[in-house]
Amino acid sequence: GMLSCVVFQNPESFMVWVHFHAPQKYQSCSGDLGPADEYSARVDIEVDCPGPSHVIRSVPLRARSGTARVHAPKDLQNVNLSAALGQSSTQTLPLKNAGNIDVHVLTILVLPSGPQYEVVLKGQVVPEEGVNPAAPGPVSALGMLPHSEVPPILSNKQFVAWGGVTLGRAVQQKLVLRNNSPNTTHHLRLLIRGQDHSCFQLQSSFGQEERLTRHRELSIRPREDVVVHLLFAPTRVACTLSKLEIKQSGVRPSQPGIKFTIPLSGYGGTSNIILEDHRKRSDGYVAMLMGVAAGQVSKLCVCVRNTGCRAAFIKAVPYSDLHTRSVMDSSDISLSPSQFVLKERTQEVGHMTCCGQKGGSGLIWTT
Predict the structure, then answer these.
(1) DSSP structural state of residue 149
(2) Alpha-carbon dihedral angle through residues 279, 285, 291, 295, given to the nearest 10 degrees
(3) Cis (ω within 30 of 0) for the bond into 337?
(4) What range(s) does the Cep192/Spd-2-like domain occupy (predicted)?
(5) Taking the C-alpha atoms of 225, 227, 228 and 229 in order, what is their torsion angle to the nearest 10 degrees?
(6) Is residue 198 helix, strand or coil?
(7) How far is CA 119 from the centre of its chain?
C-alpha cells in the first residue's frame, strides 16, 4: 500500500508515474535512529488477455525511508554579520546531517522577512572513530514493532488481479493464507476496503449455504493453510481498485495489532472480436485462403469487428498448417495491418496478400 501508479494516456503512448508513500513511523527526536528502512518492488508489464498472461518486461523499484537531522554547531546558532558601507561580510556555516538518509536541496530561510536561499547539501552519516555503526535490524509490517511480535502469516499471492470481466458476471479467485507458527493459533479478521469495495466480496460456505460479505473472521492453527475465496463482479466499464486487509483479532486493547494488505484490482468490461463471414474456433477465428497457385498472387480481405465495450489487441498470424502451427515465411505473405488495437464498437479491414511458391497449398489466418 506504499506504491501507487498514475497513468497519463494518449492514442500512441502513455506515461506511468510511480509514487512512493513512506509509512508513518514514530521516532523520538533524540533517540538512536538506526539504519534507514529499505523497500523494494517491481512493475510488471503484460498484455491483458483471457488466457495465461506473459510478462513483457519488469522494472525494479527501490526506495529508502528515514529521518534527516541537519543542524549547525552550537556556537554558530546565532550568526552576527557586520560590514562597512559598500563592503560585504561572509561567514561559513558548517552543517551536519546526523540522520540516516541523504539530504538534497536544503532550503535556508533568513528570518524574519529576508530572502530565501537554496543550498545543495549532500550529507552522509560518518561514524565516529572507535564506534561501530548500528547493524541493520529486521523491519516489521508496521515499521514500529519488533520482528518477534509480527505474526508469521504467509500468503501465496502479493496481489490479486482479475483483468477484464464482463459486466453482469462474477469471477472467483482464491488465495491461501498459512500460519507459519509451530505452536500458536492466530485469529484473523479479513476486511475489504477501498474506493471500489462494492465490486469485491469474500465468499464463504456454511454447510450448503454460501454467503457473500465484505468481512470475515477466521482462526488458523499452527502450520495450517486456509483458502480464502474472493469474488469480483464489476458494475461499470472502468478499472476498479480495492484492498484486502488482514488484521489480528482478539489482541489486547493496548496493542493496535498488525495489519497486512493485499491489493485487489480488476476491470469491468471485455472485448468481443468477430471476423465477419468466417468460422470461429475455440482459440480464435480462422480465415482460409485456398487454391494458392505457384506464380500467382492471391488476396483476401477480412473485416474485424469489436462488439464489446473494451478495446482489444489484435494480432494476425499466417500458418501454412494449422495443426502443426507452422508459420509461413514472411517473404510469401503480406498482412496489413498485422497487429493493431481495435477500439470498442469499431471495425477494421485487414488485407492479406499471398505470393504462391512451388509446393504452396493454402493459407490459414488466425486472430
Answers:
(1) G
(2) 160
(3) yes
(4) 151-269
(5) 170
(6) helix
(7) 36
In angstroms, the CA 104 to CA 112 distance is: 24
d(CA 201, CA 228): 11
Indicate the SS3 state at residue 112. coil
CA angle (288, 294, 299) in 5-degree steps: 40
The series of mean pLDDT values per 10 residues for the chain, 367 residues long, is 48 77 71 84 79 80 86 70 78 82 75 54 50 36 44 86 89 91 89 91 78 89 92 91 86 61 90 84 74 75 89 82 77 82 89 63 44
Instruction: Specify whether the CB–CB gap between 246 and 188 falls below 8 A.
Output: yes
Element holding 218 (H helix, E strand):
strand 215-220
Give whole-number Cα distances, 127 to 21, 132, 228, 236, in Å.
Answer: 29, 7, 49, 57
**Separation of alpha carbons 15 and 7, rounded Å:** 6
Task: Name the strand (E) or helix (H) holding 141.
Answer: none
Cell numbers for 239, please give them. Answer: 478499472
Residue 207 CB: number of other CB atoms within 10 A?
5
Bridge partners (DSSP) listed for residue 165: 268
How does DSSP classify residue 197?
G
Q: If 0-12 CB within 10 Å is exposed, 13-18 middle and 19+ buried, where does residue 141 land?
A: middle
